[in-house]
From TrEMBL:
This is Carbamate kinase. Keywords: Kinase, Transferase. The keyword Kinase applies. The keyword Kinase applies. GO terms for molecular function: carbamate kinase activity. Residues 1-282 form the Aspartate/glutamate/uridylate kinase domain. InterPro entries: Asp/Glu/Uridylate_kinase, Carb_kinase.
Length: 309
């Protein structure tokens, strides 16, 4: 099978952990131990999040005031290289020496007229007091929004339209390489009025980009790996139930939260509906069982209705 595995932020940094290189490597090792178990007989593509890493680079850049901070598209490119390097090394230590790897900087086109640019909603970077956030917004032209009792910068999160490197990704897969790409939803780019490609101060949703990647690669399976074993209704309540299998129409009726499970469900439903193949939402530690059809929430147009565990 051709499989796209989208690693959530917990693959790199667990909630509350200091963002050290050692902690990130330890978490990636957990992910690669599972991925290594499904390599045999399959073609693998790995996508990943990068939100905390971009936030840290932004903070480090802000501390050096002699030059302007690098824009988000450049920071995204930096983190794709850093995270890809660690994944390659940790997975390479588990597989045969002859298995080839490639990490691709991945440009993803967005539409300049996407309505997301008129309503920035994606929080990035650290939290601030209201006064600090308002001061920074005035100085830097940021949009800000509440985050609990604090405030954060928010940027646009436009939909991905096209993955520019899709052809070399296919070529590498056909030669037997494991490919790491589309990190953090890819590097957001658009064409300007003169037809020149340029970077954009935006963040593309990682799961929506992974679904587009899997669709354009004609993948057999999309695995959205996160920190829960399945998609749940009434999550965190005594009445919570894990969803075992669902048609996209049924999943979309359930109204998952936009800030957590919502984008994962949307991405899984779009991939299943556009391709007729299966997408699975499940735990990072269950990737082997997910590929075997034994774990996670499976979303497919092949079976109507919805069933619970």
């Amino acid at each position: 099978m051709r499989i796209v595995v989208a690693l959530g932020g917990n693959a790199l940094l667990r909630r509350g952990e200091p963002m050290t290189a050692d902690n990130q490597r330890a978490n990636i090792r957990i992910a690669t131990e599972q991925i290594a178990k499904v390599y045999s007989g399959n073609q693998l593509v790995i996508a990943h999040g990068n939100g905390p890493q971009v936030g840290l680079l932004s903070l480090q850049a802000a501390a050096y005031t002699q030059v302007s901070a690098y824009p988000l598209d450049v920071l995204g490119a930096e983190t794709e290289g850093m995270i890809g390097y660690i994944i390659e090394q940790e997975l390479g230590n588990l597989l045969d020496f002859e298995v080839p790897f490639a990490t691709l900087l991945t440009q993803v086109e967005v539409d300049a007229n996407d309505p997301a640019f008129q309503a920035p909603s994606k929080p990035i970077g650290p939290v601030y007091t209201k006064a600090e956030a308002e001061k920074l917004a005035a100085e830097k032209g940021w949009a800000i929004a509440p985050d609990g009792d604090k405030f954060r910068r928010v940027v646009a999160s436009p939909r991905p339209k096209r993955i520019f490197e899709i052809r070399p990704i296919k070529w590498l897969l056909e030669k037997g390489s494991i490919v790491i790409c589309a990190g953090g939803g890819g590097i957001p780019t658009m064409y300007d009025a003169s037809g020149k490609l340029q970077g954009v101060e935006a963040v593309i949703d990682k799961d929506l980009c992974s679904a587009l990647l899997a669709e354009q690669l004609e993948s057999d399976l999309l695995v959205i790996a996160t920190d829960v074993s399945a998609a749940f209704i009434d999550f965190g309540k005594p009445t919570q139930k894990a969803i075992a299998q669902a048609h996209p129409d049924e999943m979309e009726k359930l109204g998952f939260a936009a800030g957590s499970m919502g984008p994962k469900v949307q991405a899984a439903c779009e991939f299943a509906r556009h391709t007729g193949k299966t997408a699975v939402i499940g735990s990072l530690s269950d990737i082997e069982a997910i590929v075997q059809g034994k774990a996670g929430t499976r979303i497919s147009t092949a079976t109507p209705g919805i069933t619970y565990l």
